[in-house]
Fold:
Amino acid sequence: QKEVEQNSGPLSVPEGAIASLNCTYSDRGSQSFFWYRQYSGKSPELIMFIYSNGDKEDGRFTAQLNKASQYVSLLIRDSQPSDSATYLCAAEGGADGLTFGKGTHLIIQP
Amino acid sequence: SQTIHQWPATLVQPVGSPLSLECTVEGTSNPNLYWYRQAAGRGLQLLFYSVGIGQISSEVPQNLSASRPQDRQFILSSKKLLLSDSGFYLCAWRVGGNTEAFFGQGTRLTVV
Structure:
């Protein structure tokens, strides 16, 4: 059974600070990992993906992957109130699609 | 560019009534298609996926079914809805391999 675990939160971060979101996955065969942002009542939208160990940066977002520890994280620098949302971590598992965590609810306090 | 259309956006149905949700993808051929359900306070649960016309795999036993009558069309159905079928239903597509999934706008289903 493939699983992706996330702390449900809420995670409260002051505006301008760094938000750190984490997840772990159970399937060592997973090759790629994704972070989605989901606003209340809306569908998930892709923020970043990462395939290789290490860091990947895109604007204010940095994804980090450690396959040995089966750990993925997302850092959001200079957090803005518009970053307040639920962040879903997903692991690739083959043709049957992505396995999602339950998401972390992030609140950016102005 | 690729787009995915899902309708309706919201739906209120009585217990025991049938259901049909439709999803279509434009701008790509032979996509992998998925139906997910997101219940309140819970994560995304994979219900069905399809790698080609007429090919449906079910992940969770339930009173729902799926069909793929055309390459870019995916339909979720039920003959008799249960209260527990309420939730946010999401259609998604991928090109396959280690690629991301793209979601439709979702259908908020409330069974009363």
